[in-house]
Amino acid sequence: MEAVPLLTPHKMGKFDLSHRIVLAPLTRQRSYGNVPQAHAILYYSQRATQGGLLITEATGVSDTAQGYTDTPGIWTKEQVEAWKPIVDAVHKKGGVFFCQIWHVGRVSTYDFQPNGQAPISSTDKQIPRQPRHDGGFEEFSPPRRLKTDEIPKIVDDFRLAARNAIEAGFDGVEIHGAHGYLIEQFMKDSANDRTDEYGGSIENRCRFALEVVEAVVGEIGADRVGMRLSPFTDYVDCWDSNPEAVGLYMVQSLNKHNILYCHMIEPRMAIVQGRHQIPHRLLPLREAFRGTFVAAGGYDREEGNKVVDEGYTDLVAYGRLFLANPDLPKRFELSARLNKYDRITFYTSDPVVGYTDYPFLESSA
Ligand SMILES: Cc1cc2nc3c(=O)[nH]c(=O)nc-3n(C[C@H](O)[C@H](O)[C@H](O)COP(=O)(O)O)c2cc1C
C-alpha cells in the first residue's frame, strides 16, 4: 500500500488529530448582516471529519473590524448564539474547530464602519485601489491612525472575541495576523509609519500583534491559541523590507507565549517548467517554532505528502481544494479525482450554489 503521510495522526497539544489535512480559513460572505446563518451548519459539517482540524472563515472582533459584505462576527450575543449550532455540528462529526478572529483595519470603507467613520489603522496612509479578478478595481477609504492610548481597546476586542468563541463552543481561536489586515498593518514597514512605541523597530511593530496574543492567551489559555502569519506576502499594499526577520521575531515571541500552533502562508508561487513550485521559504521559521506548524498556499496532494514526509511542516491547510471538495481527506486517501473550484461563486451570497452543492465522491462517481 502507498504510504500517505497526510493521513497519519498528529498530536497538537491536547488535540489528537487523525490526519494532517486542515480546512484553511475561507471567507464566503454568506453571513447576512454579519450573523452566521443556518446554512453554515451544512457547509462546515460537510468538511468535518473525525480528528480533522477546521478553521472558520475570518470572523470580525468588533463593529469596526468589517470590510466586506456579510462576513460573520463574534462580538454580539446574537452572533455567539448563531455560531453554537454550527460548532455543535462539527463536533458531532468529531472535528476540531478553531475560529479565526480578525480585524481588517484599513482594508475597508466608510460604508462598513459605524456612523460612516474612517476605518482605523496603524497609519493614515490609504491603500491604493487594487485590481480585482473581474477586471474592476477595489477602492478603500482613507484610514484614521489609532492614537497610542486607543490601542488597548482594540487589543481588548480580540480578547473578548476569544472569550466569545469559547462561549460558542469552539476548541480555540486562530488570531489572523496575515494578508495585510490590521495586525499586519502594524507589523510591516510598508504600512507602519508610526513614531510611538508601536512603530519603528521590528520589536515595536510587532508589539500590537504580541499584545493581542498575550491578551487572548490570558483569556482562554495558550493551549487553545493559534496564529496565522504571512511575512512574505504583499497583499493590499502591506509588505516588509525584511520578511525573514519579522517572521523569525514573531515565531520566537510566540514560543515565549507557548501557543498551540503557527500557521504560515507560503510566499507567492513561482511557475517552473509549467508547474507551480512552492518556494519552501518557511523552513527556518518552522525550525524555530516549538508548537505545531501549519503551512498553506498552493498545496496539492503530492506536494502536501512530500512536505509532511520531509518534516517541513506538521499540517497542511487547503483552501480552494477543500472549498470545492467537501470530502477532501477521503479523496486524498483514495487518490481520487478532484472537483474543480468555481471562482465566480467564492463570494456570492447564495446559501447553496458554490457553497454546499459541490458533490461528494459517491455522487460524482
Ligand atoms: C475564497 C477564499 C477565501 C479566503 N478567505 C480567507 C480568510 O477568511 N482568512 C484567511 O486567513 N485566508 C483566507 N483565504 C486564503 C486561504 O486560507 C489560503 O491561504 C489560500 O487560498 C491559499 O491556499 P490554497 O492554495 O490551498 O487555496 C481565502 C482564500 C480563498 C480562495
From TrEMBL:
Question: Which residue ranges does the record assign to the NADH:flavin oxidoreductase/NADH oxidase N-terminal domain?
Answer: 6-333
Lineage: superkingdom: Eukaryota
Ranges in coiled-coil conformation:
none
Reply yes or no: does the keyword 4Fe-4S apply.
no
What the entry lists under InterPro entries is as follows: Aldolase_TIM, OxRdtase_FMN_N, Oye-like
Keywords (alphabetical) are: Fatty acid biosynthesis, Fatty acid metabolism, Flavoprotein, FMN, Lipid biosynthesis, Lipid metabolism, NADP, Oxidoreductase, Oxylipin biosynthesis
GO terms (molecular function) for this protein are: FMN binding; oxidoreductase activity
Cofactor dependence is on: FMN
BP terms from Gene Ontology: jasmonic acid biosynthetic process; oxylipin biosynthetic process
> In its keyword annotation, does this UniProt entry include Ligase?
no
Positions of region (Disordered): 119-143
Q: Which family does it belong to?
A: Belongs to the NADH:flavin oxidoreductase/NADH oxidase family.
Report what the protein is called. Answer: 12-oxophytodienoate reductase 5
Tell me what gene encodes this: LOC109723135
